[in-house]
Amino acid sequence: MKKNLLTAVCVAVGMSSFAQLPVSQTPENKNVILEEFTGIHCTYCPDGHKRADQLRAANPNDVFILNIHVGSYAVPNGSEPDFRTSFGTAIVNQTGLTGYPAGTVNRHLFSGLSQGSGTAMGRGDWASAANTILSQASYVNVACEANLDVSTRVITVDVEAYFTGTGAPSSMNLNVALTQDNIEGPQTGGSTWYPAMIQPNGKYLHNKMLRHFLTGQWGDIITTTTQGTLVQRQYTYTIPTAINGVPVELSDLKVISYIIEGQQEIITGSSGPITFTGLNFTNNAKLKSVESDNEVCGSVVTPTVKIQNYGNAVMTAATISYNVNGGTPMTYPWTGSLNSLASATVNLPAYSFNDLGNNTLNVTITDVNGGADGDMTDNSGTKNNITNTTASSTGTNYTLTVIQDRYGSEITWEIIDNATGSPIPGGTGGPYTDLAATGTLAHVHNVTLSNTGCYTFTIFDAYGDGINSGYGAGSVRFENSNSVAVFTSNGQYSSSYRKPFEITSLIAGIKESDVASEFTIYPNPTNDKSTISFYLTESSLVSIDVYNTMGSIVYSSPTKTMNVGNQQLIVDGTELPNGIYFVNLTIGNQIVTKKISVLK
Predict the structure, then answer these.
(1) Alpha-helical regions (H) of 59-187
(2) I want to staple 364 with a disulfide (CB 3.0 to 4.6 A). Which of 21, 95, 380, 574 is the partner?
């Protein structure tokens, strides 16, 4: 760490409405520093996160939050990420904390609001304590701004404090903290208390997380605090790529500075802008991540990608090309506005593919702002091991059996029709009633499906430990009218278990025809016409009907008599939009169903 100190009695300084520095010399009220003590296994901590966010939203320029993971609830299990720092234990030990979540507002002792005898308060008291602080005059103002060289990962933070009044102790401390947003990870209680933070992949989005103090545990000492004194400090820090194995994403960092009387009473604080330098190209897009479900239905994948602007110019457009298994690429024209190092999550349109069993999604950014990308080495990514669901069935009538554990009030479920994105009629259930002791109770639900195509079943556990974690062996079974299981779950999951499944026909009992064999469709996927080939063992009446995923007929052939031997029929897909279709080959009074993808 490099530290430069310039302390002087302030003279007249020009002010700028656009810069964080120089610091204001006009007396102001105090700002709030909320230290929020939390952990990934704390059930009610997400409610603390939400209340802190609401407080910040109500006072966007006056409230600043440090989310400190500390204590037993923050200890990771197995492969879980470790969000703790080397600073948290010492801070929490001086608060008198007795339960989580807890927080301190400017480390001030508020009479009647303490959890115990110290400064720690329950989440319900943060707002009133903050309003009290915001109404008080401050004898010092503080401001900061930073420059971050992306090529070296060195951040340089300039801080100024100006003492506008009297009453300050002769020695004070200046703290500079780095926090980080958009860190995905586990969080007990997230789906119940802050569902907005649950991401499509089921992970919880952690924000305002303390990562490092540039000034050390208790800050940097200020020895001149008389009225009219200007303090100027500069700190440099080389940001590691990860802390405790958790990646440090430069674009998600924030700088917070604050002034403390000793180690306890925070007088005021502020946050400042970070300017990014060291970017080598005008236009440079980076593909940060490629995501999709690991198991998909109907050989259709819906990718989600995260793109980032690694150039000096504002990124307003990019072309994203993607395919599965090297198939015909689809392109997506993204438009928006991303400043340097800003990122965006892009949900790409669905892509139909030819299932190879173990499938690979390939994504590339091909151009930026209508021209070439300055560095193509970071423009591509893949998602491997995508499988097509094996859970498929026929018919309309099904039975869902949910066996709850003791805590039925934590359990909810839904069945989504993928074609509409909404639950089917009667396709939601729970919560159930808690049992008096550890055990199980079965809940049987009749489910009616009215369309062929893909569905997604999801069961949630609000606590985050599934329904088979020692309080009763809960489970799930979804079966057809013949009592044959379409899918099952042993109930061992965290916040949710998700299972896509496919209905191949609403006519129950479809089987391979006794008079036909070797039924194939080629090419599949198709962008034009496909040939249906099959072998007849006897002369039969033959016809074809093509259904979309909503169960509507989109193409039919006339019925005609065909003789013994190899036969072919043509399905014309030139007028059909991209998507999944079901081809019913009727031979006499028997039906054989195959799936076909149209991809243009």
Answers:
(1) 88-93, 126-134
(2) 380
Contact 6, 38 (CB under 8 A): no
Q: Which of 302, 267, 231, 258 is nearest to 5 (CA)?
A: 231
- Percentage of the chain surpassing pLDDT 70? 94
CATH 2.60.40.10 intervals, the chain: 2-10+28-277, 285-387
- Distance (Å, whole) CA 215 – CA 5: 13
Task: Starting at the earlier edge strand, list the strands of the sheet with 229-238.
Answer: 2-9, 229-238, 154-163, 140-149, 274-277
In this structure, the strands spanning 295-296 and 380-388 are: parallel
**How confident is residue 13, by pLDDT bands cut at 50, 70 and 90?**
very low
- As a whole number, the mean pLDDT across the chain is 90
Model pLDDT for residues 282-306, shown as the tens digit of each residue: 999 999 999 999 999 989 999 999 9
Question: Helix or strand or coil: residue 510?
Answer: coil
**Cα(18)–Cα(277) distance, rounded to whole angstroms?**
19
Q: Who's near 383: CB < 8 A, 6+ residues apart? A: 290, 291, 292, 303, 360, 361, 363
Domain limits, CATH 2.60.60, in the chain: 392-505
Q: Which residue has the higher pLDDT, 450 or 579?
A: 450
Cα–Cα distance for residue pair 400/203, rounded to 1 Å? 26
Look up the CATH number of domain 392-505. Answer: 2.60.60
- CA–CA distance, 380 with 373 (Å, rounded to integer): 12
CB 64 within 8 A of CB 210: no
Give pLDDT, residue 510.
42
Contact 544, 490 (CB under 8 A): no
Residue 517: predicted pLDDT: 57
Report which listed range, 384-388, 451-455, 547-551, is most confident.
Answer: 384-388
Residue that the structure tokens 């929020």 belong to: 36
- What is the CATH architecture of 2-10+28-277? Sandwich (2.60)
The contacts of residue 483 (CB under 8 Å, 6+ apart) are none
Its CATH class, for the domain covering 516-598, is mainly beta
CA–CA distance, 179 with 66 (Å, rounded to integer) = 7
Pinpoint the residues of the chain covered by CATH 2.60.40.1930.
516-598
Reply yes or no on whether the pLDDT at 163 is more than 90.
yes
Question: Is the pLDDT confidence value at 330 over 90?
Answer: yes
How many whole angstroms separate alpha carbon 424 and alpha carbon 478?
15
CATH architecture of 285-387: Sandwich (2.60)
Number of H helices, E strands in the chain: 4, 46
587 sits in which H/E element: strand 579-587
What is the pTM for the complete model shown?
Answer: 0.73
Is 60 in contact with 54 (CB distance < 8 Å)?
Answer: no
